[in-house]
Amino acid sequence: MMKRILFCLIILLVVVAPIAARTVEMTLHAAKVSPPTKQYTLLPKADEQTDTDAAPLYEKALQFFPSDYQMEEVEQWLKTPPDKLPFNQVQSVLQQLEPILKLHKQAAKCKHCDWPYWDEDDFTENSRKHRRLVYFHALKVRLLIAQSRYDEAIGSAQTGFAMAKHLGQGSELVHGLFGIGIAAYMCRQLEAFIQRPDAPNLYQALRDLPQPFIDLTEKAKWIEPDTKKKVHSLMNRLDRHLAVLQCLEAMRLYSASHEGKFPKQLSDITRIAVPNDPATGKPFIYSRTGSQVVLEIPASGEETERDTMRYELNLKE
After folding, report:
1. Range of 62-66, 68-72, 76-80, 167-171 with top mean pLDDT
2. With the C-alpha atoms ordered 51, 62, 167, 169, is the resulting torsion angle positive or negative?
3. What is the pTM of this model?
4. What is the DSSP pairing of strand 309-316 with strand 110-112?
5. In terms of Cα–Cα distance, which of 268, 230, 244 is closest to 19?
6. How far is residue 203 CA from its own chain's centroid?
7. Neighbours of 267 (CB within 10 A)
8. Pairing of strands 110-112, 285-289
9. In b/e form, how buried is each residue of 127-164, taking b as 16+ CB within 10 angstroms?
10. Cα separation, 229 vs 235, whole angstroms
11. How far apart are the C-alpha atoms of 130 and 181, rounded to whole Å?
């Protein structure tokens, strides 16, 4: 069993959510909080959910997906800034797969998901198939961002986060690990979203997410200490990523009422709560020089330098 967990961790790190130190350059724009009548969520609301089991719907979506689909072009588009996407080509590809994406969206709105047991072969194959579907939802998010169709972009991102949450609630540790990888990938799409000058502010939507987003503490109790540390490191990395995004949105809110300027320090933001680093319980490392800010997420505990993140931010007036 331990060999299986280690194998799945390797697959996760290699093909789902590669772990490496990240430096992210971003340009932000001031953005006020959305009015109460326009509250966004990154998980389906309770009144939107159904009692249907999501697992058969996910499986049906996978069965319809072309097994020989070439992903190289899609993977390249996912590295392309939204404004530079070849709109017509991307739109054409997404239209072909729209029935599959609708099934995926339907599954994401189910209250529960009874995932089957995955052995090593199942995990490798299922992670590959589900990863493809998530990539297409991410691509759809990026296209909708470029088209300033923000409500729809948030809806597509919500599908990815909901699937990640379904996996996190699965009976197997490997389900949760894969869910962490999917959620981390959707976080990267939100980084593109919040850089748009007219994008709505997602502070409240991010604050409303559960923390930890995926809790694998109980499932990891019986595994050896070194592997358990890797699992907790992945959990922390995802929660830190979500907290950083909320922090960035808090900064955009602050700048909207302070002449389009970043705060001198995070403690200057007093009208709303700024999240601390979930791994340390302390504020993120923040430094400002003029209109530029650096937000740093250092390694914590027994993490290494590859677990660090650094955000280099400019504020567009």
Report:
1. 76-80
2. positive
3. 0.93
4. unpaired
5. 230
6. 14
7. 10
8. unpaired
9. bebbbbbbbbbbbbbbbbbbeeebeebbbbbbbbbbbb
10. 10
11. 11
